[in-house]
Prior knowledge:
The protein has helices spanning 2-38, 50-62, 66-77, 113-140, 146-188, 191-199, 213-225, 233-243, 257-264, and strands spanning 42-45, 78-81, 103-106, 109-112, 231-232, 267-273, 279-285. It is mainly alpha-helical.
Amino acid sequence: MNDLGGENLEHLRAKIERGLGQCLLQLQRYELGLKRFLSTTVIRGNTETLEAHQEARKAHFSNKTLGQLIGELTGEYLVPSSPDEDSSPPPYEPLENPKLSEFQFRFSMSMTEERHETLRAELAEIVLIRNELVHHFLERFNLNEVSGCDDAVRHLANVQQVVAQNFERLKEWDKTRRSAAKQAAEFMQSNEFGSMLSYGVYPGLPIVWRDTTAVTLLKEAEEQLARDGWTDLKSAIGMMQQKRPDLGPKIYHCKTWRQLLKKSELFELRKITHQDETTSTLFCSR
């Protein structure tokens, strides 16, 4: 009887060792999946900086623990929304070179506060499971008894199921992100995106003058050419045309640069008459 019990105990222990190893490998695959997923939830840069930004984001997550990754997931990607709150995006990081335009796509999943709390609890359970397997497994289960081994086998089977379910859910989230990224890539190849990137305007939408390329270049010309606070418009136009010969007021539905400055409401205008009776238009930022 004791021999049979000993053989059964050894068999169960071997089964537990295999199951424990499978669980730990499964958890590690899930952790790596989280790192890959989170590194792609924000895409930022331009032709010069895009690759560097993505590598920096990968490096940011490479040394994170499972608990830290779950914290990033529930804080950055899974976003609670409330009808009473204004859900504004996270603050945009300052540009490394303000002279170069950059784009940024941030992927997230909005949900009710109740659903967010439920997911946080479910994901936190994975961290608890992992910590127990690594640090407290032998404390919880007495592997010197058949009953303890049976409990451990059932527990490991349940752990595998929980981790597998969460892994499948992560795959679904990644599938959704990939679909959104594909749409973003298609948009980046569109004329609308080209117009937004080149001129700071989106066809069909109201012009946000402060974000336009024209206003940016006018202010740059003002910094270099202003005298006593005022800048000659003709000189500023010449400077802008050297940098961007494709840029003109018609892009912004204006007939002249003077009309553009007036329409933007960002500049004061002044007309002066010279001794030879010629006139010049001056401007200054408000």
